[in-house]
Design a protein that fits this description.
two-stranded antiparallel ribbon; 17 helices; globular; mainly alpha
Length: 423
């Protein structure tokens, strides 16, 4: 998955109102634009790019052989590769539009997805029970990831993984990342897990029921059905679901520990405590007035933090170590909350009780960059100007809010940006 282990699978926000998209497991940092750009006229674009891709493949061949790819495997796999302009277009535009976490959850945890998840759980109950016993990961969590990544196998992607990765490695904002993924895809073919024709996936190369990138497949995929192949592509989901269990176990999943619990905050709560670096036991949180929705202390599942993915006006969650494990699949808070809450609903749990500030909209990419620049210029360094509303930016927002004497919940709203503009 992403970065060989940190991936591209759909990045969302690493905090609040950030971009929501998905490639599949392993969200990785967004590709960085290459310094060289290919300038061609529209009329000659196909010819020029195919010719350029062909030259790139010639140079790539020696690197692939050094990696351990057999020459015959390489030649057969890349014999008819074509440049996919649509892939580049999607890569360039993926972060232009945003969703708030509540808009994302409306889709991610819709009644339809919950119902289909319960049906999928019932259909594959025996297999999922075996997976849970083998890897120590609750079956509802695995089904929820399956539901968000491919709608329970309905949308696994039908594009050529080799074409997509070759295109992205040749002309991408992060060529090294995609070249490594292409090498791992060739290794999949060499080891006989699938064929070139069946190596299908998303435009970014994520594959199968739970959308593994090739490097994640190599590191974590398992042959659970015992047929001698790690097959995540065909209709039978057993290998894909078990591979997801193996992946989560590798990163330290704790069986029996929730990802998070919705909590109530007391009047006068110090929102500076809603920081991932502030960790307390549920008992200590209860002493501060942070309790579950029934007004009782949260059960002691280990050390926990308080998360406010929609700011002070939205729902609050007490999150445990398993939240960070799910982040290894996709780093976005919205995705992790989506997986966790969907798993709870599939299990029969209640909907999120607290409302969301639906009158607010997410910041656009340009506005997020402006926010980071204005915060930094005002003395609240975000460290990076990357449009990502991650911990560094959220902490800068909090420091600015404290300086202004307003509620320091770290939420990057349009109102906060307007306050910065007025300085």
């Amino acid at each position: 998955m992403r970065q060989s282990l940190t991936t591209l699978a759909g990045c969302l926000i690493a905090g609040l109102a950030a971009p929501v998209w998905a490639f599949g497991p392993d969200t990785s940092p967004r590709p960085v634009e290459r310094s060289e750009k290919i300038e061609v006229s529209a009329a000659n674009a196909r010819t020029a790019t195919d010719r350029g891709l062909g030259k790139w493949i010639i140079g790539f061949r020696s690197r692939a052989i050094s990696f351990g790819i057999e020459p015959t495997v390489f030649d057969q796999a890349l014999a008819n590769v074509t440049y996919e302009s649509g892939v580049i277009k999607r890569d360039r535009n993926q972060a232009e539009f945003t969703k708030t976490i509540w808009d994302y959850l409306d889709t991610a945890v819709s009644d339809l997805r919950i119902g289909n998840g319960r049906n999928a759980l019932a259909k594959w109950e025996q297999t999922l029970t075996r997976i849970e016993a083998t890897y120590g990961v609750e079956k509802e969590i695995i089904v929820a990831i399956w539901g968000l990544e491919s709608a329970y196998g309905t949308f696994r992607g039908n594009g050529s993984v080799v074409n997509a990765l070759a295109t992205l490695a040749y002309d991408a904002r992060r060529a090294d990342f995609f070249e490594n993924e292409l090498l791992n895809a060739l290794l999949i073919l060499q080891e006989g897990d699938t064929t070139r024709a069946r190596l299908r996936g998303s435009w970014a190369g994520a594959m199968g029921h739970t959308q593994f990138m090739p490097s994640s497949f190599q590191a974590h995929a398992v042959d659970f059905d015992g047929d001698g192949r790690r097959n995540i592509w065909d209709d039978d989901p057993r290998d894909a679901l078990a591979s997801t269990g193996a992946y989560l176990r590798h990163f330290g999943w704790t069986r029996g520990q929730p990802w998070g619990v919705e909590v109530r905050l007391p009047d006068g709560f110090d929102y500076l405590l809603s920081d991932r670096t502030v960790v307390k036991s549920p008992g200590d949180w209860a002493a501060l007035g942070v309790v579950d929705q029934n007004g009782k202390p949260v059960a002691d599942h280990g050390m926990a933090s308080v998360l406010l993915p929609g700011g002070a006006e939205g729902a609050a969650f007490m999150i445990f170590d398993n939240f960070a494990v799910l982040e290894k699949y996709n780093t976005a808070d919205a995705y992790v909350v989506g997986v966790g809450h969907l798993s709870d609903r599939i299990r029969g749990g209640p909907p999120i009780k607290h409302g969301w500030p639906r009158r607010l909209r997410a910041l656009t990419k340009d506005e997020r960059i402006e926010l980071q620049k204005r915060l930094t210029a005002a003395g609240f360094d975000t460290v990076k100007i990357d449009a990502k509303m991650g911990p560094l930016t959220i902490n800068a927002v909090r420091r600015f809010q404290v300086s202004q004497g307003v509620l320091a919940d770290g939420y990057p709203s349009l109102q906060l940006l307007d306050r910065l503009r007025a300085l």
